[in-house]
Specification:
Elements (H helix, E strand, L loop, with lengths): L5 H8 L1 H4 L18 H13 L3 H5 L4 H6 L2 H8 L4 H11 L3 E9 L4 E11 L13 H6 L2 H17 L4 E13 L2 E4 L7 E8 L6 E5 L3 E4 L5 E9 L5 E10 L7 E6 L5 E3 L4 E10 L9 E11 L1
Parallel strand pairs: 5-13
Antiparallel strand pairs: 1-2, 2-3, 3-4, 5-7, 6-8, 8-12, 9-11, 9-13, 10-12
Helix pairs in contact: 7-9
């Protein structure tokens, strides 16, 4: 699997997504979460910030959900769990944001611009063990409590590092409910194929063969690799993007297979890769195909 520093890489590569506001607006106390577009947006962003992607998926529009099911959506983003999730949720409650503009359209859509002031997750890296999920979740309860108390103390003393910004979001009304409109239908499909040695030494399968994404939206895919022999093997991949002219628009943020990895005899491992389609991809681009060619290192 990719190293645990993955989350810091993702934070740096998708600061806009991960540092968006997620606290309750004052107005939420007077509206349900579903009939107020600002309330729905608030709950969605709170879940995104906390990496609670199962919750976030509930607020996504039906047209978008038809293009990507919950299991794929959650797997592509890498959710927090356990105490790590609890700590991220606590931070989300400390974010301050204000709707700078709310524009409702006659076709049942809304455009909302939010200004925000949010805790910088990277700035808390030392306290939160560089967001190493395994280490955080393995801490004894008294140590976890100390971390939550430290966050409270930083807030009271004004010691929390904060970031500020604004962003615009689209929502659509579905019956009596508002939902996030991510417009995946106008996004780019990314397909994944595999080439393996013909000597039958490896069995390789992508966990998903195709996904759809928008520019600046990180997603993670994985390959299951099985050593079919009774000997240890070393394998690595070459990575091909087609059309070749679009390769510069698909960034490989992280991959565990660019260097040789050891797979024990009969062992089955899963290796992850994280991608992002760059903003500025040529208009009209509908598909990119990625081929992983697995090679045996001798």
């Amino acid at each position: 699997m990719c190293p645990r520093v993955k989350f810091l890489v993702l934070f740096a590569a998708a600061a806009l997504l991960l540092f968006l506001p997620a606290a309750y607006l004052l107005g939420e106390k007077r509206h349900s979460a579903n009939d107020d577009p600002v309330g729905v947006l608030t709950h969605y962003l709170r879940a995104i910030y906390s990496r609670d992607f199962r919750l976030a998926y509930r607020f996504i529009s039906a047209p978008d959900q038809r293009l990507k099911n919950e299991k794929v959506y959650v797997r592509e983003r890498g959710p927090f769990t356990g105490f790590t999730l609890a700590a991220a949720r606590k931070l989300s409650q400390l974010i301050e944001f204000t709707p700078a503009q709310i524009r409702r359209e006659n076709d049942g859509r809304a455009q909302i611009t939010l200004a925000f002031r949010a805790p910088d997750m990277n700035g808390l890296g030392t306290l939160l063990l560089d967001w190493d999920e395994e280490r955080l979740n393995a801490l004894p309860p008294n140590e976890q409590k100390k971390i939550l108390t430290a966050i409270d103390n930083l807030k009271r003393s004004g010691g929390l590092e904060m970031i500020e910004g604004h962003e615009e979001f689209a929502l659509v009304r579905e019956g009596g409910n508002w939902r996030m409109f991510l417009d995946w239908a106008s996004g780019v499909k990314v397909g994944f194929a595999t080439l393996v040695p013909q000597d039958g030494l490896l069995e390789v399968k992508p966990t998903i063969k195709e996904t759809v994404t928008r520019p600046n939206e990180l997603f993670t895919i994985a390959y299951r690799v099985k050593n079919l022999t009774d000997k240890d093997l070393y394998t690595r991949i070459s990575h091909r993007v087609e059309p070749a002219a679009l390769a510069e628009h698909l960034d490989l943020v992280e991959c565990a297979l660019l260097l040789p990895v050891k797979i024990l005899a009969g062992e089955d491992q899963t290796f992850s890769s994280t991608y992002v389609v760059r903003d500025g991809i040529p208009d009209g681009t509908k598909r990119i195909d990625v081929t992983y060619e697995f090679k045996i290192e001798h």
